[in-house]
Amino acid sequence: MEKTSAPADHRAIIVSVDLITFNKKYSENFNSDEFIDLAKSAGLQVEDHILSNQSFVSASHFLTKGKVEELRILSSEKDIKLVVLDCELSPSQERNLEKLLCARVLDRTGLILDIFAARAHSDIGKLQVELAQLSFLSTRLVRGWSHLERQKGGIGLRGPGETQLETDRRLIGNRIKQLKKRLDKQHNQKNLNRYSRKKGNNKLVALVGYTNAGKTSLFNRLTKGGLEAEDKLFATLDTTTRRANFKFKALDTVLFSDTVGFISNLPTKLIESFKATLDDLASADLLIHVIDAADPDKDYKIEQVNLILEDLGVSEVPQIRALNKIDLLQGTQIMPANNQYPETKISSETKEGLDELKIIISESLFGDLLTGWINFSPMQANIRSKLFDTGCILEEKIDSSGQNLSLVEITQTMLKKFENIESFKELKPSPH
């Protein structure tokens, strides 16, 4: 069966680089399939896949001479105009490879930026992607003007190539300054929103995890957010916040935030550019680390997520680990165990374990739910009214002595407001 024809600039050769000596830890968890999935997420048609096992990095081309020659022959035979490498190339290495291969060369950072540009929908997301792209492009301008005359030296001998490069650098520099100013304004607005949320006693729970772990699917289950969830890398880019959809009305003040997925070797430039979005993690009261429990490389991906959280300075935020996709697990597979954080098994597809997860979330944010029958005196009518408004009163009845009793379910956090009321001291932990 013949492959469906694709545009010339979408046909690509993928090169996975395994630096077995430079990074032994990375080599042990090396997974070239992930990079192929990343390329397909960008809309590329993978014509061939080359694996380069090398113990050193060439200063001029990154790849070894033999691998570059193999790549040149292959790209020439198949008429490939795009080569994508799973590494971070310097501008000079990128230019040298393009000159030898007579094809456009893209590294890991460039590929991820291309995916982000296609997936950004909000204003702040588009600003952040453009900032990251311009910062990446600013060191690669010389490639676009290599056909023009360069500076010869001396007064009056400045060539058009040098003039154009200086103009472009100045224009890009000005645009970067404008983007940073606009992002600062967006950042200040977000800070005001966070202040209002804190003032309203709302709690923020942020979903984090490796890309394609099922964060968006879980987000939809917890909030009825209605976001599009797809089985591909970086399906979600823009941060979205929605109110919780809990059966406990007392927990209506919980907000959930769906964040961009992480990936191994996430370029530092992207982390810096996306800090305005990822600041939601720093202001979160609780993180839910969503893990694909059916993934054989889950332990390595957990480690990568923790490293990024540490880079962002949010590793101290309380965390819950949600082992997702347990409906895909076989009986022989072993679930990861961790004593540092509360851990629960769930399936956002079948809803298995979601009630237990909600209980763990509520206990982490507010402490145990307490319940019991209370007789409110006429002097406590205002308290009874507030509890009705928050949904803490589940039922009312009149007992045999004619007293009006109310069944109260309340969090320990809310209970502190009424700790001086004697009847509230009789409440007991809710059986859920």
TrEMBL record:
What Gene Ontology cellular component terms go with this record? Answer: cytoplasm
The record's section on Pfam families has: GTP-bdg_M, GTP-bdg_N, MMR_HSR1
- In terms of superkingdom, the source organism counts as Bacteria
Coarse class of the protein's main subcellular location: cytoplasm
Signal peptide feature range: none
Known cofactor(s) = Mg(2+)
* Role this protein plays: GTPase that associates with the 50S ribosomal subunit and may have a role during protein synthesis or ribosome biogenesis.
Give the family this protein belongs to, as stated in its UniProt record: Belongs to the TRAFAC class OBG-HflX-like GTPase superfamily. HflX GTPase family.
Name used for this protein in its record:
GTPase HflX
